[in-house]
Design goal:
By secondary structure, the chain is mostly helical. Among the domains are: 165 residues, no CATH class; 39 residues, no CATH class. It contains 16 helices and six strands. It has a two-stranded antiparallel ribbon with strand order 1-2. It has a two-stranded antiparallel ribbon with strand order 3-4. It has a two-stranded antiparallel ribbon with strand order 5-6. A hairpin with an 8-residue loop joins strand 1 and strand 2. The termini are far apart. It comes from Trametes pubescens (White-rot fungus). This is MYND-type domain-containing protein.
Length: 377
């Protein structure tokens, strides 16, 4: 039941919809009891458009029938693909809102095929042979090009859903994956948004990014910090400085005013990334084999962008990974760390150094706070 409700929310509702999951679950339970899958399938044969979307949701969730993204797409083709060849095309008579939902569901179904688990691949291949859809006959799931083809189809349907006015969580997921795809090929985001393809989808991604950045700015305004100091953003670190150069800022794609500063790669990558990822790379799923490794020319072609660069290769904004070394550095901007010291007037002492590496300063703090190092222990 939870999966069924989750799929409905991901595909049929706007991402800003404030979902009452208790109510949705109660309503869904009642609806499923009153409308068994056999009854709903019979309605699809009679051309019931609402039933087509409902059956697709059940195929995607595995509620009332075997889980199958291919089965969902077979149903949705009647509303989304004029050339599907399995029967009459009903999209011309479908209300705009319902057609948008169908495209949103199709985007989710294709994304499911992109991220299909190895254990489910054989079952999906069998479903492709069973439903004999045009797209799957052209490129089956076991072919090397399948993942990229399914990714492209997901983008098409997400774009159509956005064009029709529905920006569901599934649509946003596809949009952020498209951004990741362009990043992997070394294409600047501002260049992506000017592409000739996926205009409505780009607008939704840009709008959502603006919302996320605005939310983050409000959060940061509520954080009390010394305006004269730069503080390592990793929770519990405590390294600070009066000079910006003493800390390294995030080299990712977050806005300049939202770039956190760090004392070391360890704090950035190991301690703060899970928090900052929501702003720096929202919706990112990392590299996708068969998708992210496409040549830049393929990415530019998919996005409809002319290649104006001569580098021919991906660029990266990530700082090189290196292991922090516990040794003295050449003199530079001073950094400070506070060490709890009960009995002192302030309750702590401040250690400032222009040569100690951040890891060494934190090591000193830990050693001074360790009870076994106290006199008489």
């Amino acid at each position: 039941m939870d999966i069924y409700v989750g799929v409905r929310v991901a595909c049929l509702f706007d991402y800003l919809y404030n979902t009452d999951y208790n109510k949705e679950t109660k309503d869904a339970s009642k609806y499923l009891f009153q409308n068994p899958s056999e009854k709903v399938l019979a309605r699809t044969v009679r051309g019931d458009l609402e039933a087509i979307v409902e059956v697709a949701i059940r195929y995607l969730s595995g509620c009332g029938m075997n889980k199958s993204p291919e089965g969902a797409l077979f149903q949705l083709d009647f509303l989304t693909d004029p050339d599907h060849g399995q029967g009459p095309y009903l999209g011309d008579t479908a209300p705009r809102e319902l057609k948008a939902k169908a495209h949103s569901c199709a985007a989710q179904a294709y994304l499911n095929k992109v991220f299909i688990a190895p254990a489910e691949r054989a079952g999906l291949a069998a479903d492709e042979r069973r439903f004999t859809r045009r797209d799957s006959l052209r490129v089956s799931i076991n072919e090397p090009a399948a993942r990229f083809a399914n990714f492209t189809n997901a983008l098409h349907h997400a774009n159509e859903s956005a064009k029709l006015g529905l920006v569901s969580p599934a649509v946003l997921t596809a949009g952020f994956l498209l951004r990741d795809f362009g990043d992997a090929a070394g294409i600047d985001f501002s260049q992506m948004t000017r592409s000739r393809r996926f205009g409505p989808l780009w607008k939704t991604v840009t709008r959502r990014l603006d919302e996320l950045y605005a939310e983050e700015r409000i959060k940061q305004m509520k954080i009390a910090k010394n305006p004269a100091a730069y503080v390592c953003a990793a929770e519990g670190c405590g390294i600070r400085s009066e000079e910006r150069a003493a800390l390294r800022k995030c080299a990712g794609r977050c806005p300049p005013d939202l770039k956190p500063h760090y004392c070391s790669p360890e704090c950035q990558k190991k301690k703060d990334w899970l928090r900052h990822k929501a702003v720096c790379k929202p919706g990112s799923k990392g590299r996708i084999p068969g998708v992210s490794d496409q040549p830049k020319a393929v990415a530019l072609g998919l996005l409809g962008i002319e290649d104006t660069s001569n580098d021919g290769g991906p660029s990266t904004t990530e700082s090189p990974e290196h292991k922090p070394q516990l040794h003295a550095l050449p003199p530079g901007p001073a950094r400070t760390i506070d060490i709890p010291a009960p009995g002192t007037s302030r309750g702590y002492i401040s250690v400032t150094s222009s040569t100690l590496e951040a890891g060494m300063m934190k090591y000193i703090r830990e050693e001074m706070m360790n009870p076994r190092n106290e006199q008489g222990s």
